[in-house]
Amino acid sequence: MVAGKHGTVEVELGSRVVSVPKGGLYDRFRMDTDLDVVARDPRVSGVDFFRKLPKAKVESAIGTTLTPNFYYSISTARLTMLARTRAIRSRLPGDLDPLEVAPGLGLVSVMFFRYDVCDIDFYTEAAVGIGVRPARHGGLGFVDLVSALKNEDLASYVLSLPVNSEIAQVRGHDGYGFPKWVTELDVKIDGERTSARVANDKGGADLSLLAPTPAQKAYPSGERVSSLTSYTTINGAWHSTLSQTNVLSAGTTRRTRGVALRTGEGRLTDDLRGLDPIRPIQFDVMTEGQLALHMPVPTSVKSRH
Q1: Which of 16, 75, 198, 246 has the CB geometry, 3.0–4.6 Å to 49, for a possible disulfide?
Q2: pLDDT, tens digit, 9 for 90 and up, residues 200-235
Q3: Could you give the CA distance from residue 34 to residue 54 in angstroms, rounded to a whole number?
Q4: Is 0.90 topped by the overall pTM?
Q5: What is the pLDDT of residue 154?
């Protein structure tokens, strides 16, 4: 570790060097964060969820690390849209099958994330993703659909995943195989309004969202825990990454007329247009939650067989 820019230090992740906030959680704990310290942060409602998830040391492309990566205070927004299966298949690897709501129709999503307190410090993120059939079976399509729309057990393939943090980009790209890059990215989510703006490499707008936040319902910690499995390739082999979300306050609406999603110029917009979405069908916002992101593990994704 060496001194970096003002207020930062430089750390090694595999063959890469990145800057992290000096005195931040990563600088102080290197993923082995003291939960008692986090519990004293006024932005964190509690840490009981994490005490039940012991960390394990693993070797990876970013060096020796601990998994899961803990996110102690997060907020998220997800706009789900219908798209034609033909357009979806043109963007999916051949090993993956889209999750269909009806013959010829599948699900695509635009997502925004704000991670206020986590093991690798504050950052924001956005994504364009495709709902896919879980690799664990070849049937139960309706059950998968219901689970997906209820945000209980999702499976996805992500086309683009920009972030505003160096360490998040390197960990996500090198360690997880996600299509990540660094850009200016603002996400603000509260009980009244949800807004997000992703900049392109020219400083203009790539993708933006503005909407009233759906009415929120509070949940005790551990009562509503959802999962997301994402499929990526690392060194030519398929891997699955599990994330577990402890939902603390969330709401959903299918009245999406007030949701303003604006496209501009950039990689997110290009990926979304390539999917040719027909119309939005659901808007989900979680104003408070927590997350455990596991390191990827090898998997077979050939759900057709």
Answers
A1: 246
A2: 999 999 999 999 999 999 999 999 999 999 999 999
A3: 12
A4: yes
A5: 85
- What total of structural domains would you count in the chain? 1
Strand ranges inside 61-204, DSSP E: 63-67, 69-84, 100-102, 105-118, 123-131, 153-160, 185-189, 193-199
Amino acid at position 186, single letter: D
- 193-199/225-234 β-pairing: unpaired
What tokens appear for 282 in the block?
A: 């659901």
Q: Which amino acid is at 118?
A: C
Residue 193 burial (CB count, 10 A): 12
- Write the burial class of residue 263 (CB in 10 Å: 0-12 exposed, 13-18 middle, 19+ buried): middle
Q: Assess if residue 23 is contained within a domain.
A: no
Query: Does the CA dihedral 3-5-8-11 come out positive or negative?
Result: negative
Task: Decide if 184 is inside a domain.
Answer: yes
Count the neighbouring beta carbons within 10 Å of the beta carbon of residue 198: 27
Instruction: Find the domain containing 220 and state its range.
Output: 34-298
H runs (alpha helix) in the chain: 25-29, 35-39, 48-51, 85-89, 141-149, 166-170, 176, 267-275
Mean pLDDT of 82-98: 96
